[in-house]
Amino acid sequence: PEWDGEPIEPETCKTCGQSPCICEKTPAKPCSVCGQSPCVCPPEPCAKCGQRPCLCRKKARVKLADGKERRIQHMTCTSFWHPDGTPMSAQQFMELLFGKLPEFFHNEEELRAIWSAPDTRKKLLLGLAEKGFGHDQLAEMQKIIDAEASDIFDVLAHVAYAHPPLTREVRAAHARVYINTQFSDKQQAFLDFVLQHYITAGVEELDQEKLTPLLRLKYHAIADAVADLGQPAEIGKVFAGFQKYLYADKAA
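The structure corresponding to this sequence follows.
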């Protein structure tokens, strides 16, 4: 092999003056928990999820055309697809939905009014589905914005206006304040039953088609429901009429 010069002498220790150093090494203090040096304790669990290692879903920031940021879960796979069958990212889906929503409502008040009535809410959902924003896609968007315990209204309000989602439980609590002053004791008991189903299962429980099944669950016989709540037309009016309190300004 080729000679590359004299070997370099090791540096002289500034403490003991020797080369190599012969200073006595002081061992590190053992960990007060495991007694080992170095420490072999497992890392602390995440303060948020309580797991070790952390299982929290990472969030990404998405800025839409209004200049406001939304936060979405970091997704490793997609559940959204272009009409031609190619995959679409969560951000692309949110941008597409943001661009289409003005075709259905022009401001927050109009969205609230549409969503507050079962018939107009149903028409809105059908219209969204025709544009490619059906039940499954909106449910997936709930997950992406970390709003699975919220209403689909909150998904639309978050995408359209960057409002932070409220849980269904919080909305129900706001609504009860109004319900307790606007309805009789027996009507309140029924509406509280409806709200429990809404909290558990979602906004679908407020569909007009769910009224009869809910009455049967609560009263077992429609005749018993009529005895408590009044004639069917009045019951339907109560069922549809209370829903605006879920989406009143205070709850949004």
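The radius of gyration is 30 Å.
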